[in-house]
Structure formats: structure tokens, C-alpha cells
Amino acid sequence: MSYIDRNLLTNEQILHRGYLSRIVFVSPSLLLLLGLAVLALDGDVAVIGVILLLAGVAGLLGAFIRYKTSEFAVTNKRVIMKVGLIRRTSVEIVLSKIESITVDQGIAGRIFNFGSIAVVGTGGTHDPFHRIAAPLQFRRAVQEQLAG
């Protein structure tokens, strides 16, 4: 059972789930491929290839854990965002306390449909979460709940 499902309030329903983008796998995958390419070369650079390969594997493992332990949801009562396994960061803001929600997308984010979401609550809370898949859909789900 997920963090969000375990922490739902009475009569609270999940209306939209967001996910971390698979873009988190790109950098470690490139590092892994670079390590394999360097290993394919003959000579004294094999040690560098092994180091790059191990760094790529470690990066992929970290990205996988981050991908699996990140949860984002809009319910009929609040917005819930949680990232992390050992060091957990979570934000739960009641809909009535949300002033705005911002989406930041660079060129790559617009092309591959990922970006950063920041929920701005009353009292000046500004909590950004990065590399969220389909951030505009998430923002729309929040705005629909705020309007309704």
C-alpha cells in the first residue's frame, strides 16, 4: 500500500495521481553506455570504463528507488506530494490553503512532458518537486478542485 493510500482522511478520494518522469533514468543510462563504450576500447582505459560502468549502475539503482518512492496526488480535500525512501520529504496542503500552483518547464521538459511543480500555500510555503511527469495535467487537476 502506498504512502498516499495509507494517509487518506475519512471520505477522502484520490482524483488524480502524478508520477515522477522516466527522465530520471537518462543520465545514469548514458553513464552506463559510456562505460560500456570505454570498456570496448583496447588499452589502459579499461579501469575508467569499469568506474563509469559502476557509477552508471549505482545511478540507475538510485533513480529506480527515487522513481518507485515518489508519489503525487490530488484528492477532493488536499494535495499530497512525497519523495524519498530513507530521507522522506512530503507536503500535504489542504485545498483551501493553496494560493497557487506553478509549473516550470524548460525546453527538454516541454519536449518530453516533465517539469517542476511548486505548490504555494498561505503563509508563504513554496515547495518545489522536480521532474514530475505531465505537470500541466497535475496543475489542472489542482485547479479543477480549487474551482469546484
Automatic annotation (TrEMBL):
<keyword id="KW-0472">Membrane</keyword>
<dbReference type="InterPro" id="IPR005182">
    <property type="entry name" value="YdbS-like_PH"/>
</dbReference>
<feature type="domain" description="YdbS-like PH">
    <location>
        <begin position="67"/>
        <end position="139"/>
    </location>
</feature>
<feature type="transmembrane region" description="Helical">
    <location>
        <begin position="20"/>
        <end position="41"/>
    </location>
</feature>
<keyword id="KW-0812">Transmembrane</keyword>
<protein>
    <submittedName>
        <fullName>Putative Permease of the major facilitator superfamily</fullName>
    </submittedName>
</protein>
<dbReference type="Pfam" id="PF03703">
    <property type="entry name" value="bPH_2"/>
</dbReference>
<keyword id="KW-1133">Transmembrane helix</keyword>
<feature type="transmembrane region" description="Helical">
    <location>
        <begin position="47"/>
        <end position="67"/>
    </location>
</feature>
